Amino acid sequence: MTMPRTLAEILRHADQLSARFEDYEPDPADEFDPEVVALLRAAVQERSDAERRVLDAIRAARQAGMSWSAIGLFVGTSGEAVRQRYRNEVA
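-> structure tokens emitted (91 positions)
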């Protein structure tokens, strides 16, 4: 569908969206298991926290004069890969 351009098209589109909203009937099959959602949210938060700790550690390592290749050994990748990933974030 192309974006409405005229006022009449915009109003017609708004009416269509409004009707879809008003006529919507929830389907239990579309609902997510709250426990699974909580697990996903917790895992994503843990990953975010871990990435923040890795970034802090890399920043400290660079400030201490550690080379990118040495950092790469600890991170489990090449020095070039770790440099490309983190160089703008540790500066």
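The helical segments are 7-23, 34-63, 68-75, 79-90.
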